Amino acid sequence: MNRLFLNDSSRIFSGANPFEVSDFVNRHVGSHELRMSRHHDSSASLQHRKVGALNLCRLSYGTQARIVSEGLPDIYHVQFILRGHCRYELWRDSLSLPAGHVLVINPDDPVDLTYSEDCEKFIVKIPTGMLNDACEEHRWFKPNERIKFNQVPYKFAELDSLIQLLTIVCQEAESGLATPQMLQHYNRVVSGKLMTMLKHNVCMETPAAHSVCFDRLVQYIDERIKDNLTAESLAAYSRMSLRSLYLLFERHARTTPKNYIRQKKLERVHSTLMDTTQNIHNVTAIALDYGFTHLGRFSELYKSTFGMLPSESLRRHRGGAE
After folding, report:
1. Which of 33, 71, 80, 234 is the most buried (most CB within 10 A)?
2. CA distance linking residue 294 with residue 298, whole number of Å
3. What pLDDT, on a 0 to 100 scale, did the predictor assign at position 272?
4. With a cut of 70, which residues of the chain have pLDDT below it?
5. CB 164, CB 117: distance < 8 Å
6. In Å, what is the CA distance from 74 to each residue of 128, 157, 160, 276?
7. Considering the entire predicted model, what is its pTM?
8. SS3 of 91, please?
9. Taking Cα atoms as reference points, which of 180, 197, 171, 212 lies closest to residue 78?
10. What confidence tens digit (pLDDT) does each residue in 4-28 have?
C-alpha cells in the first residue's frame, strides 16, 4: 500500500513530534484534540497536498494516539487505513478498522478515533460545497438535511476505481504540471465518484423516477390548491432540498415552484369564473378563496394570463347562464 497516494515529494514532517503533526492537521485538515497515554517519541510523519478545494493528507503519529473532536464543520473526511488499525467509537458501537479499510466521517459527527502505534492513514478532506455542486451538476436530489454518508466501512477492493482515481490525482498534484483548471476538473470527478460509489441519503434515481416525483407534486398541489402552498412546504412534503425542488420544476415545468403554484391558482379561478353551473356573486370572494389577497395585483396577473380582467370573465359567466 506504500505505492498508493502521496509520495516523499509531499512530505512536511518526518520523525517529528506528534503534536507538531497534530497542529498542522488542525490548521489544514480538521480540528481535533490529540491525546496520548504515554511519553511520545519523535516518530510522526505527514505528507500533504492541496488540490483545488481538496486537501490530501497521509499521516502517522508513530505511537498509539487518540483523536477526539466534537465534529468537522462543513467538511467530510474519507479515511483510508494504509497500515496498522484504527478503532472508531460511534454512538452505540465501536468499529475496528484494519489496514485496507475505508470510512467516511460526516460533518458535525463526533469523532473518537484511536490509532495503533503502526497506524498510517490517507485522508481526503472534502468541503460540503463540492458535494452539493456535484448534486446540482448531475441533477441528483439532495434531501433538506445535509448529505450524509452511511457509517459503514468499505474494503479497498470495493473501491478500487476510486483509489486509482485518487492515486492519479496525487500524481498530478505532485508533478507540478497540472494547471489550477485541471485540478478543479479532478475535484469534480472525485466528487462525482464518491457520490456514485458510496452509500448516502441522496436520491440518484433515473429521469423517469424524477418524473414520477414531479407528478406526485402536481397531484399534491391540485388537491390543496386553495392552501397557502410554498416552495418550502413542497420541499418538506417531497423530502428534498429547496435546490433539488427548483431543479425539478425547472426540468419539468420550465418555471419556479412559486410561479407554478400561482399559475395553477389563476387557472382554477378562471375555470370557476367561467363555469356557468356555479352561482358566483363577485370576483373578490373567489380571489380570496384561492389566496390572492392583493386584488389589484391579482387583476393584473389574471389579465396578462387570460387576456381579460376577472370582472369580464364574470360578465361572460353571467351572460352564458342566462
Report:
1. 80
2. 6
3. 85
4. 1-3, 38-40, 144, 205-210, 212, 317-322
5. no
6. 5, 29, 27, 58
7. 0.68
8. coil
9. 197
10. 899 999 999 999 999 999 999 999 9
Cell 479497498 locates to 156
Cα separation, 298 vs 288, in Å, equals: 10
Q: Grid coordinates in use for 54?
A: 481538496
- Alpha carbons within 13 A on the beta-carbon side of 173: 28
Cell numbers for 145: 438535511
Instruction: For residue range 189-212, list pLDDT tens digits in order.
Output: 999 999 999 999 887 765 555 576
Please give the Cα distance from 229 to 231 (Å, whole number). 7
Residue 159: burial class (beta carbons within 10 Å; 0-12, 13-18, 19+): buried
**How big is the CA angle at 290 (ends 285 and 291), to the nearest 5 degrees?**
95
Cell numbers that stand for 304 in this block: 396578462
**Burial class of residue 228 in the structure, from the number of CB atoms within 10 Å of its CB (0-12 exposed, 13-18 middle, 19+ buried):** exposed
